[in-house]
Design a protein that fits this description.
With 688 residues, this protein is an alpha+beta fold. The protein is 22% helix and 29% strand. Helix 8 (407-424) crosses helix 12.
Length: 688
């Protein structure tokens, strides 16, 4: 009967939730409510899931509906806060407009649209008129174009485009604020993330408050050069609620769909329900393919490299030599050919270090030869295998002479490139040569990667196509993979958009210039290079960076995205133009080369971690350690640090450089933006 009704009856059910209330009997709560089928056609037999959010958990129950109106009840020992009917949209039914996020495609498909331009007296009038004329070309009969001075109220029966800053901005902002979004003076906030207006274009959709079946689109354009690209690209992003684009091309930097709010099938049961959100158990897929990559194999590599027996893999130690031999043996086992100029797997060199004397160092290099002789530039896949040993050259106060195991930094990265070598070494026939390198001396100032770039004769800098560097990738824990230095080629954004579609693993391009890891040695030579990074954590360069904290599922995700990226680059014929800034890095390299001292980071700590994904000006606080200088000063998660001692810091690098100028015990004044207000915080720096 349940199955037959979908064949023999027409239409779909429409549900409403009514008369929801709570009664307390002793320590028990009874929730009574009514679910109605309000469609005009036949009543259908339905099994409808209902979620009850309580002060302790989300309880999910399934109720059978057989009548137009079904009175139901549910009893719980926990205080009810909210009720949600069909919260995960399991039931085939007609959706209420409030359950459908505003999307660009609603406007794209409209037969009747109004475009509202700024007044002709405004500087950007011509810019938006040019866009409007290009957008409607060939469909002029579907559009009406007016300036803001020619209209007092927005109609409800049309799709509306509001271009630029007009008198209707407050109406748009009132709707955007429901989604923690807002058009601001110098920036726009979309789904909690802020983006500067300079150089960027944005489009956001909201429901028309007078007709929820129609939408209003707000569009801001960075400059005239972006118009052609926006007209060409916007039609391909119809499913999204909002978009952000960077530069003249323009390149997508933000996209998303609004959350469903104000659903008529959701009712609050308590005054404390405002922030009560349901928590559902993750559903298992009906079928699963065996993973290409093995977390067990990767964990075996990490267990060996980060064991106490390896004493932290300090530069110049016998333990680091053991790690090098281990990696070389795996390269041989996995079918990689020797990659050094002398026909071995080791690129051996000597370097003097302040306080250490002359040390014998070695990079481990293996290759998968390319099959296309016309593609002479190779793709480099890298990870550094050294760490801090007992605390050299970067040790925090109190951690002297303790083993720094370096499980995440960077046994995790080595495990990923070994897994890629295992999976691809004997089967892949790439057009370009792929070079696998385990670098030494990263912790002492990118020593191994810089030596490779400057001294490898077969593949000097001008024969390197791109670099994929894996460093500190073992603590993903459900977050997006961060792709650092994504500004070094415009193609990176498109490449990682593609990997998200093909793998389902989310990544986020970080375009800030960061002195992060071995990819910097390639950037210094004008080579497109990125670092895969799972994000900052409190165990960085501490003895607490240990094996048991590694996220195995996350390693598989990193390897999966790494493989997709690597295979694409290895077969790509077109060159990727370098778009980064390598001037500062080259100057820094020359300075360090003359000095021959290991890199020295800042020696002070605020006890906070930055949000690497934040793209606005300043440094956004992602975490504050307990009983730290930041916590004692009252810094909060979400604060945006704008100035240090009155001096602007627009980027994380500028902020880090400013802190390097100070000593433990110094008091500094931070100017922070908090909830759109500016405050000053005095903070006493601690020793790292």
């Amino acid at each position: 009967m349940v199955f037959v009704q979908w064949i023999e009856k027409t239409g779909a059910p429409t549900l409403s939730l009514e008369n929801a209330k709570v009664e307390q009997f002793g320590d028990t709560y009874q929730i009574s409510f009514t679910i109605k089928q309000t469609q005009k056609g036949d009543v259908l037999k339905l099994n409808v899931p209902v979620a009850f959010v309580t002060n302790k958990e989300t309880q999910l129950e399934v109720f059978e509906l057989t009548d137009k109106e079904t009175k139901l009840s549910f009893t719980t020992k926990n205080e009810p806060l909210k009720i949600l009917v069909d919260p995960q949209f399991d039931v085939f039914r007609n959706l209420d407009p409030r359950e459908i996020p505003a999307a660009l495609t609603t406007a794209y498909g409209s037969e009747n649209s109004l475009i509202v331009l700024p007044s002709k007296s405004k500087n950007d009038y011509q810019l938006y008129e040019d866009f409007a004329n290009q957008w409607i070309k060939g469909s002029e009969d579907k559009f009406q174009i007016l300036t803001e001075n020619e209209i007092d109220n927005l109609p409800s029966d049309k799709a509306i485009w509001i271009l630029g800053n007009t008198k209707f901005q407050s109406l748009v902002n009132n709707s955007l604020k429901q989604f923690n979004s807002e058009i601001q003076k110098d920036s726009i906030k979309l789904d909690s993330k802020s983006f500067p207006n300079t150089g960027n274009s944005f489009i956001a959709s909201i429901k028309n408050p007078n007709n929820l079946n129609n939408v209003i689109l707000y569009l801001s354009i960075a400059n005239k050069n972006a118009i052609d690209g926006l007209v060409r690209k916007l039609p391909h992003y119809g499913k999204y609620s909002y978009l952000g684009f960077e530069g003249d091309e323009p390149t997508n930097i933000a996209k998303g769909q609004w959350a469903v709010i104000n659903s008529p099938l959701v009712k609050s049961l308590s005054t404390r329900s405002e922030k009560a959100e349901p928590e559902f158990k993750q559903r298992e897929a009906l079928a699963k393919l065996a993973p290409v990559f093995s977390s067990k194999r990767m964990m075996e590599h990490i267990t060996f490299l980060a064991s106490d027996k390896m004493k932290g893999r300090e530069l110049g130690s016998s333990e680091l030599d053991s790690a090098a031999n281990y990696i070389a043996e795996k390269f041989i086992e996995y079918g990689l050919e020797p990659g050094s100029d002398d026909g071995t797997y080791f690129q051996i060199f000597e370097k003097a270090f302040h306080g250490k004397g002359n040390l014998n160092l070695k990079n481990i290099i293996g290759i998968i030869p390319g099959t296309n002789p016309n593609l002479k530039e190779a793709v480099v896949v890298s990870a550094h295998y050294d760490h801090l040993g007992l605390g050299w050259p970067d040790v925090r106060k109190g951690n002297e002479n303790k083993i720094h195991n370096g499980a995440d930094d960077n046994a995790s990265g080595v495990s990923v490139i070994l897994e890629l070598a295992e999976v691809l070494g004997k089967s892949l026939k790439p057009a370009r040569t792929i070079i696998f390198i385990a670098f030494t001396g990263e912790e002492a100032g990118l020593v191994g990667s810089r030596y490779f770039i400057e001294n490898h004769k077969t593949f000097p800098a001008d024969k390197i196509f791109a670099n994929l560097n894996f460093d500190t990738v073992g603590r993903l824990e459900g977050k997006k993979i961060l792709i650092l230095n994504g500004n070094t080629a415009r193609e990176w954004k498109f490449i990682f958009m593609g990997t998200e579609y093909t793998t389902g693993v989310s990544s986020e391009i970080i375009t800030q210039e960061l002195d992060a890891s071995d990819q910097v040695a390639f950037i210094e030579e004008g080579i497109p290079a990125v670092q895969f990074f799972s994000g900052p954590n409190e165990d960085y360069h501490k003895p607490t960076d240990t094996i048991e904290k590694i996220d195995l599922d996350g390693l598989v995700k990193v390897a999966t995205v790494g493989r997709e990226t690597l295979v694409y680059l290895a077969d790509r014929e077109d060159k990727m133009e370098f778009t980064g800034d390598n001037t500062k890095d080259k100057n820094k390299k020359t300075k360090e080369s003359e000095n021959e001292k290991p890199k020295e980071g800042r020696k002070v700590s605020t006890g906070t971690m930055p949000d690497f994904a934040y793209q606005g000006e300043g440094v956004k606080v992602a975490a504050v350690s307990e009983d730290s200088p930041g916590a004692n000063a009252g810094l909060q998660i979400g604060d945006i640090i704008k100035k240090v001692n009155g001096k602007e810091c627009k980027t994380l690098k500028e902020y880090s450089d400013m802190l390097k100028e100070h000593q433990p015990g110094d008091e500094i004044t931070l100017t922070v933006e908090r909830n759109e207000k500016v405050e000053e915080v005095k903070l006493v720096l601690a020793e790292r």
